[in-house]
Design a protein that fits this description.
By secondary structure, the protein is of the alpha/beta class. It has nine helices and eight strands. It has an eight-stranded parallel sheet with strand order 7-6-5-4-3-2-1-8. The protein is globular and about 50 Å long. The chain binds pyridoxal-5'-phosphate.
Length: 229
């Protein structure tokens, strides 16, 4: 198999999983967006998947993301990793959606960057489901304050919330808590409709919990780490 065939087979397998998860949850496939997380993968892979019909791509490092965004057009770029405040201005020049906003300084910097670039950037507030701030995200109790801040910032649009399932916890429980946080956000901000949860290993649990944005890397592109560890 050449790379295009490999990616097509992976995409078909992911698509089958997402469809089955939607059927099991009584949801329609069209309400769920799959973001192909292309970090560490060459731009040629992004072009191949784009030409197979994938529209959304995710990156987690500014340098790599900026160069791919310059190289590949006609896709929507999602920034899914931790954003250093001093990189925020540049991220705002190419990212369509930033999934990982977890502090006021980052809100301010992204807003300034977006305004300067004449762009509107969609923002998801990252929620910490394990209470460990080293892994990114704000505690559920601090979500209202930060979502209000995003909504009030020029250049940014509050689009919803995002989380990564904590290691070693049942993802269904974790995503259930995220859904409750999202419900609270949507009561204050009805336009914040995006619930970004679920990766290669736990996308079924995320769809069952109501996620409408999945971030899928290894299931589409293959393992990022060598087979021998
Ligand atoms: C890498 C990454 C993903 C994709 O993870 P896979 O397990 O490869 O599907 C999703 N979300 C975030 C925040 C990531 O950093």
């Amino acid at each position: 198999m050449n790379r295009a065939e490999e990616l097509a087979a992976n995409l078909a397998a992911v698509e089958a999983r997402v469809r089955a998860a939607c059927v099991a949850a009584g949801r329609t496939r069209s309400e769920v967006t799959v973001v192909a997380v292309s970090k560490t993968r060459p731009a040629t892979d992004v072009v191949l998947l784009r030409d197979l019909g994938v529209h959304d791509f995710g990156e987690n490092r500014d340098g790599e993301a900026a160069s791919k965004a310059a190289e590949v057009d006609r896709v929507r770029w999602h920034f899914v990793g931790a954003v250093q405040t001093n990189k925020a201005r540049r991220v705002a020049t190419y990212a369509d959606v930033v999934h990982s906003v977890d502090r006021q300084a980052l809100v301010d910097a992204l807003g300034r960057g977006a305004v300067r670039a004449g762009r509107a950037v969609d923002v998801l507030v990252q929620v910490s489901l394990d209470g460990d701030p080293r892994r990114g995200g704000v505690l559920a109790a601090d979500v209202p304050q930060l979502t209000d801040a995003v909504a009030a910032t020029d250049g940014l649009r509050l689009a919803g919330v995002m989380a990564v399932a904590p290691l070693g916890q049942n993802p269904a429980d974790a995503f259930g808590r995220l859904t409750e946080v999202h419900d609270g956000v949507q009561r204050r901000h009805p336009g914040a409709t995006t619930l970004s949860a679920g990766m290669s290993a736990d996308l079924e649990a995320a769809v069952a919990a109501g996620a409408n944005c999945l971030r899928v890397g290894t299931a589409l592109f293959g393992s990022r780490t060598p087979v021998t560890r």
